C-alpha cells in the first residue's frame, strides 16, 4: 500500500466543509453463507461528500448494534455518523452483516460474532480491491478505519485484534466457519484496519492487544448494565462469558503502548446515544478528534506522534473546565454548611472534559488553531 499521507490542511476532516452528502444504497460487497447454510448477499450504504475532488480519501466502515440478532445498515446512529463524517471529507459505509444464531447459548453467539467479523473484513477487502482496480470510491487503501456500536463494537475490535487462529476458542469451530477471513470475496487483499472506534463493545480477551497494534478509541458508559465498562460477564441467562469493556481495553492498550483514547460517559448506561442526541454529539466529536490526527499531513493534532511511536506510558487526564457550585437556599431552621469546590480551569483554547463525560488520551491537547465547528459539535 502507498505511503502517501492524507492532506488535512484547511480544516478538512475537522470542519464540515461539504454541505451535501451523496448516498449510494444497496452496494453489494460480499457473498456469504448463513448459519442455516443458505447463500446471502451482503449490502452496504456508501456516503461520500458531494462535489469532492480529492483522489484518495480515508474511509470508515461502521456496523450497527443489535446483539447479532437485529438491526440494519440504516440504523439511525450509523446514518447520522456516516453523514456527519462524510461532511468532513470522509468516505463512510454502513454495512449489513449476518444475523441470527442457534442454539441461543454462548457458543451460538460466539460463532455469530465470528461470522459478523468476517463480514466486516470482507467490506475492508472490497474497498481495497476497488482502490486497486476501478477506484470508484476513491478510497486510500492505507487509511481504512472500522467502528461500531455494541455488537458492531465487538466485531470492530475483533477485526483489529483477533488476528491469530489460535486466539479463537476451539469449541467455536473456526475452520468450519471459514477461518478468520471467511469466504466473502477478494481474498488477496488485506483486511487490517488502521484504527478502531469502539462504542459500547468489548473483547473476550484483552491480551489480544499487543505492542504495535492499531490505535483504538473507546466510548463507553460507566454504568452500562449490559456490556461492562470494565471487566464483567455477558450472556445472561446464557452461560456467562467474561468480557472486557472500553475501560479495560484502554488500560491494556496503554500498558502495551497502543495509542488510545478513552471517552467515559459518566453515569450513562448502554448505547445512550441511541436515545439522547447529546451523547451522539459526543460520539461524533470523539470519533472526529481520534481519526484526524491519524491521517498524516497538515496540522498533526494530539495523537499523531503517539500513533507513529507508541510508548507504554500512563495516559494523562485532560484539564477539566471550571465548575461553579450554586449555593442552595438555607432552611428556616438554621445555617447549613456548604462545601466549596474549585477545579483548575483549562487553558484558553484547549479541549475540556464536560461534567457527564471525561477523556484520556496519549498526547498533548489539540492545537487551538482548530476551533469547534459549532455549539452542536461540542463534547458533552
TrEMBL record:
Regions of compositional bias (Polar residues) in chain numbering: 351-363
Stretches assigned to the BD-FAE-like domain: 44-164
UniProt xrefs under Pfam families: BD-FAE
Residue span of region Disordered: 346-380
Comp. bias regions, Pro residues: 365-374
PANTHER family from the UniProt entry: AB HYDROLASE SUPERFAMILY PROTEIN C4A8.06C
UniProt protein name: Carboxylesterase family protein
Native source species: Hymenobacter taeanensis
Amino acid at each position: 500500500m502507498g505511503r502517501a499521507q492524507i492532506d488535512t490542511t484547511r480544516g478538512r476532516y475537522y470542519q464540515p466543509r461539504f454541505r451535501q452528502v451523496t448516498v449510494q444504497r444497496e452496494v453489494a460487497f460480499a457473498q456469504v453463507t448463513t448459519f442455516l447454510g443458505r447463500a446471502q448477499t451482503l449490502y452496504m450504504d456508501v456516503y461520500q461528500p458531494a462535489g469532492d475532488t480529492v483522489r484518495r480519501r480515508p474511509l470508515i466502515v461502521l456496523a450497527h448494534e443489535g446483539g447479532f440478532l437485529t438491526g440494519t445498515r440504516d440504523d439511525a446512529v450509523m446514518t447520522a455518523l456516516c453523514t456527519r463524517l462524510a461532511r468532513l471529507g470522509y468516505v463512510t459505509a454502513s454495512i449489513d452483516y449476518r444475523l441470527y444464531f442457534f442454539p441461543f447459548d454462548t457458543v451460538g453467539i460466539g460463532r455469530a460474532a465470528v461470522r459478523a467479523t468476517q463480514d466486516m473484513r470482507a467490506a475492508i477487502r472490497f474497498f481495497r480491491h476497488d482502490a486497486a482496480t476501478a477506484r470508484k470510491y476513491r478510497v486510500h487503501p492505507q487509511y481504512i478505519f472500522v467502528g461500531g456500536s455494541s455488537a458492531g463494537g465487538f466485531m470492530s475490535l475483533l477485526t483489529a485484534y483477533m488476528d491469530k487462529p489460535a486466539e479463537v476458542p476451539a469449541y467455536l469451530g473456526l475452520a468450519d466457519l471459514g477461518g478468520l477471513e471467511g469466504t466473502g470475496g477478494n481474498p488477496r487483499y488485506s483486511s487490517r484496519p488502521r484504527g478502531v472506534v469502539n462504542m459500547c463493545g468489548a473483547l473476550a480477551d484483552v491480551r489480544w492487544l499487543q505492542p504495535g497494534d492499531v490505535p483504538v478509541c473507546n466510548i463507553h458508559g460507566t454504568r452500562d448494565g449490559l456490556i461492562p465498562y470494565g471487566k464483567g460477564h455477558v450472556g445472561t441467562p446464557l452461560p456467562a462469558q467474561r468480557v472486557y469493556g472500553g475501560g479495560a481495553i484502554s488500560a491494556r492498550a496503554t500498558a502495551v503502548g497502543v495509542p488510545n483514547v478513552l471517552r467515559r460517559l459518566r453515569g450513562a448506561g448502554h448505547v445512550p446515544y441511541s436515545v439522547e442526541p447529546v451523547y451522539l454529539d459526543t460520539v461524533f466529536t470523539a470519533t472526529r478528534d481520534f481519526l484526524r490526527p491519524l491521517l498524516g499531513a497538515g496540522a498533526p493534532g494530539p495523537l499523531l506522534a503517539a500513533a507513529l511511536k507508541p510508548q507504554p506510558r500512563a495516559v494523562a487526564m485532560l484539564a477539566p473546565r471550571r465548575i461553579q457550585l450554586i449555593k442552595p437556599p438555607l432552611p428556616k431552621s438554621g445555617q447549613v454548611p456548604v462545601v466549596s469546590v474549585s477545579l483548575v480551569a483549562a487553558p484558553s483554547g484547549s479541549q475540556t472534559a464536560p461534567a457527564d463525560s471525561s477523556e484520556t488520551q496519549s498526547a498533548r491537547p489539540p492545537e487551538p488553531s482548530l476551533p469547534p465547528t459549532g455549539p452542536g459539535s461540542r463534547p458533552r
